[in-house]
Amino acid sequence: MTNPYSDRENTSGSTLPIALIQQQYSQEQGKNIAANISAIRKAAQGGAKLVVLSELHTSLYFCQTHNYDNFELAEPIPGKTTDAFAAVAKQENIVLVTSLFERRSTAIYHNSAVVLDCDGSIAGIYRKMHIPDDPGYHEKFYFTPGDLGFEPIATSIGKLGVLICWDQWYPEAARLMTLAGAEILVYPTAIGWDPDDDKAEQQRQLEAWITIQRSHAIANGVPLISVNRVGFEKDLSKKTAGAQFWGNSFVVGAQGEFIARANNSDNTILYTKIDLQQNKQVRQIWPFMRDRRVDAYSGLTQRWLEKTITSNSTSTDKR
Amino acid sequence: MTNPYSDRENTSGSTLPIALIQQQYSQEQGKNIAANISAIRKAAQGGAKLVVLSELHTSLYFCQTHNYDNFELAEPIPGKTTDAFAAVAKQENIVLVTSLFERRSTAIYHNSAVVLDCDGSIAGIYRKMHIPDDPGYHEKFYFTPGDLGFEPIATSIGKLGVLICWDQWYPEAARLMTLAGAEILVYPTAIGWDPDDDKAEQQRQLEAWITIQRSHAIANGVPLISVNRVGFEKDLSKKTAGAQFWGNSFVVGAQGEFIARANNSDNTILYTKIDLQQNKQVRQIWPFMRDRRVDAYSGLTQRWLEKTITSNSTSTDKR
Prior knowledge:
Shape of chain A: globular
Strand order of the largest sheet of chain A: 5-4-3-2-1-15
Strand content of chain A: 15-25%
Structural class of chain A: alpha/beta
CATH class of chain A: Alpha Beta
Oligomer: homodimer
Mean pLDDT of chain A: 94
Number of domains of chain A: 1
CATH topology of chain A: Nitrilase/N-carbamoyl-D-aminoacid amidohydrolase
CATH superfamily of chain A: Carbon-nitrogen hydrolase
Distance between the termini of chain A: 62 Å
């Protein structure tokens, strides 16, 4: 195969070749995993050193409905699926970000990301901290909110700040990952349009999704990778018109500038490079961390600060 | 004059006609104030109910240099300048967001915003919390960081979350203002290009500035107004090539969508309307506040959380 990085800037010690796997998934878990592995191998053979998959990439996005049967999709970590991906990471000598429905016990389930290092070891896991629950996205039914906090995962290619989907709307999550040393923010995602929304609303949602993630790169002076699936998936409960997953997997640099972006419909391996030295220079011209008012941020741990007649002791501003 | 709102959607009880005053300023304070007042009157007579000026709109952006003489520009609040703007706010029956170099005493100076209500009273003041200090922006020399926290200012048209320039890079500031009840975020600003930077870098900076502010609207489900000056101002110390203030004053809705945007060079009164009901609907489809992990955010009050050999008790992660 031709080198997918050959038309990009010369490789230097400071750039990291990466690949994002944007794909449509089906009801057949075995077929999804085979497609994942085939794409990962192709990406690695193309030169990628970091490969990122989208959220819950071994199944349909099953959270469209409440269905006890879906708990059968959950797996322990480590388990059969992480073993399979670990073997590929080792064979291909890459760092691999995967995502799965974690069965921690028969009482506790999470929406988790597993990072596999190039020696096949589990570098670390992240359990999704912010859990949505909205029409078509019934995640609170399936997933207990994460309890591992916002801890970057150290790998042979750097510290990855892995967050998952709904986390992307929370500047707090990106900030905490960065304060804890993340060098790259990584968001496996499954987000789509409601076909019943008009085009203008769909465009606003897509742009908002991109904009807020770019802002995390800017606020924190780090590059960011976001990987979404594509394809239409029916809502079997028929309560919504289903989800048209909007792809648009993308990578931005530490100023929020686009480095690569996929379209909204195609199975794609998106190859690009991240400059790991850029953030040092960007943080010099924009030294935002220097001036954070940590003395005045205690209200961020409160639910709501507005002073009203119904305020109680937990929602009252303590400043 | 023709009605500047006539080509916009019909006025309803829920839309607020606003105007942003984007202008170039000169060394003559009297002339700047006269230009401000003339533009405010025109905006009000055009129907605006909320008028917002840019940062430090009565002078050149004097922070390009360290110069003791510039402290003569500072004024008390209330004072001659706030009195003049208060009289205009009352006469024109508008809410007016102004900005000035505050002399709190001969020992303490701030970069402050003063909000004047339509009865001519001071609705409230905000003292810039995050103070930059970079080539061409020597604000730490002039301004003590604000000590009033992130408190919205209640006015006859709603609660304004007024923040100033450098604050715009901090998601924490926008979040705290919103948690405390702000219905609109408002950013008087003075930001420009270094003429020595190439066009690509200038474009990245402008886009980052817009992107991060749009993200605050999205994260918090509130509309946002940002007002910048235009024009080139020399660096009298000759340490930099001066500042080409980039204008681009803009307004976005609660999904971060553009409602209005000025260009990068012209003196402009930017008329538009804000839908004060939109945020209720947007917050229903995107209930981000519901799912904040306030139990896991305590690290936000820390300077840095990375575990290193040099960590000490104040920078160690306490989770």
